[in-house]
Design brief:
With about 500 residues, the chain is of the alpha+beta class. It has 15 helices and 14 strands. It is about 35% helix and about 20% strand. A 6-stranded mixed beta sheet has the order 8-14-13-11-9-10. Strands 5-6-7-2-12 form a 5-stranded mixed beta sheet, with helices on both faces. A 3-stranded antiparallel beta sheet has the order 1-4-3, with no helix packed on it. InterPro entries: Alcohol_O-acetyltransferase, CAT-like_dom_sf.
Length: about 500
């Protein structure tokens, strides 16, 4: 591990801002860590210089010092990044595992390895004594020199976002990194909402949020309908998330189809692929889990990276996120696919929507935390020996709120899911495939969907709590509907598709 007996002046600390701490540190404390995984496929082990990879692990820690950090005071109201000014040894970052080949279904082989990587990282990590990232080489158990090599870069979300994780993965396998920007520790203090974390949002935002989030859901149904309020699915779940183990599922969209979809979207006033993919997915969720069963909408939030290196933001680590939220509204068979895609396209590129997201983050910061007595916690905590192992009772009010959520039949607080699309980033040097995704999270939303595009097409990963709002068979049906929708709109380019027509074809 990084040295723990050095002089105090050889280390530095900086506070984690409330937004990060609430969503990530608290979640890990109660057994729901947020883990990002980038997995690369190489044709065989000889496709990668493994000795260079070992050296690169040290080089990148020197370049981006947040890679050497731990989190101190995790179970208090004021956790901090603790910077260790010496690098983690390579043998604490790099590990090797074997996998069983599946010649008849290489996609299934890849997906199995991907989930192994996510779960392995959650077994090992301790915030205050272990690295917050790891690299795992997966070699075939038999004839490894002639089989695929998988490299999994797995990181705790507290130190990085998805786009930064891909930059790090590319740097790990690149021939040369001398051109990459160095990051100083001071940059991380300014990342996220940084120095503005303690600012109040405008009073108009505070009032509107209280009205929308707290007051409107309590009004009589007739009044809510008059106001145009459509409740977000799922209002209630059939099984508590604390009792619902997370699962992961991956969908491939071929490169030929993504190219066709981009051209089709332009014909309907949608300039990028993101709104097309997003609309197809939320319609698939609606078709499988809502259609005819309830009067609910799919409402999700998307994470947008606002970092700008030219203005002093970190190039790779940390991040400067905002969120924007979107709802399908009340859907019927006559709702139109391209109208929905255009609406999402507008929201996802609207500067005001990004500002609204920052103000929402500041609203979260207004919620004050405090200590809690774990002996008096009213809510059941996951078993201490369930992974990641450790005491998961509440030591702060934030942790208590997280436990309350995973013990609730209405845990999602008006949000159906999270959508994270990194767009087209291109494959790292020598790689033939790349997947971006996250671990499941009891404290999260009903679905957490991640997408990245590259020369091989698009890869979509869905993480969910199996048996809560979604079960595995339902997710697989939704993924089939998703692909059917994409194929339908690509085959009939000019058609102004209705939701009913698309769903019937699935």
């Amino acid at each position: 591990m990084a040295p723990d007996d050095g002089l105090a002046e050889e280390r530095g600390e900086s506070p984690l801002y409330e937004w990060t701490r609430r969503l990530l540190v608290n979640n890990r404390s109660v057994g729901s860590p947020s883990t990002i995984n980038i997995m690369l496929t190489f044709p065989n082990p000889s496709s990668l210089d493994l000795s260079r990879l070992t050296k690169r692990i040290d080089e990148l820690q020197q370049l981006w010092p947040l890679l050497s950090a731990t989190v101190a005071d995790q179970r208090t109201t004021k956790p901090k990044f603790r910077y260790n000014y010496s690098s983690w040894p390579a043998d604490q970052i790099l590990s090797s595992k074997t996998y069983e080949t599946n010649p008849d279904n290489p996609t299934e082989e890849r997906d199995t390895v991907y989930e192994m990587a996510l779960r392995q990282f959650q077994v090992k990590i301790s915030y205050d004594s272990d690295p917050l990232w790891g690299v795992t080489l997966f070699r075939a158990s038999s004839d490894p020199e002639n089989q695929r090599l998988y490299i999994a870069l797995t990181l705790d979300h507290v130190i990085i976002d998805g786009r930064g994780a891909v930059k790090l993965a590319k740097a790990l396998v690149a021939t040369d990194v001398s051109h990459l920007a160095r990051e100083d520790i001071e940059l991380y203090d300014k990342a996220g909402i940084g120095a503005g974390a303690e600012e109040l949002p405008p009073y108009s935002v505070i009032a509107a949020t209280i009205f929308r989030v707290i007051l409107v859901p309590r009004l009589p149904d007739v009044v809510k309908r008059w106001l145009g309020y459509v409740p977000a699915w799922p209002q209630k779940i059939t099984q508590l998330t604390i009792n619902s183990p997370w699962k992961s599922s991956i969908v491939d969209v071929p490169a030929s189809l993504t190219l066709k979809l981009k051209e089709v979207g332009k014909k309907h006033g949608v300039a990028t692929l993101n709104p097309t993919f997003h609309t197809a997915w939320v319609l698939a969720v609606w078709a499988v889990f809502i259609d005819g069963k309830s009067d609910e909408a799919v409402r999700d939030c998307s994470i947008k990276d606002l970092r700008d290196v030219s203005k002093g933001d970190p190039y790779c680590m940390s991040g400067r996120p905002t969120i924007y939220m979107w709802s399908t509204g009340r859907l019927t068979d006559k709702s139109r696919f391209w109208d929905l895609a255009q609406a999402y396209s507008h929201v996802s590129t609207d500067p005001q929507a990004a500002l609204d997201g920052l103000n929402m983050m500041k609203m979260v910061n207004m919620i004050k935390d405090g200590p809690a007595n774990p002996e008096e916690c009213k809510y059941r905590a996951p078993d201490s020996d369930s992974l990641p192992a450790g005491d998961k009772r509440a030591y702060t009010l934030g942790e208590e709120e997280a436990l309350k959520k995973i013990n609730s039949i209405s845990p999602f607080q008006g949000m159906s899911g999270t959508w994270s699309n990194l767009s087209y980033l291109g494959l790292p040097e020598g790689a033939t495939d790349m997947i971006f995704g996250v671990s499941g999270n009891d404290t999260g939303t009903a679905f957490n969907t991640c997408l990245v595009g590259h020369e091989g097409g698009a890869r979509i990963q869905n993480a969910y709590s199996d048996g809560a709002a979604m079960a595995e068979d339902g997710v697989k049906r939704a993924e089939k509907v998703f692909l059917d929708i994409l194929n339908s709109i690509s085959e009939e380019e000019e058609k102004d598709w209705t939701v009913g027509d698309l769903v019937k074809k699935s």
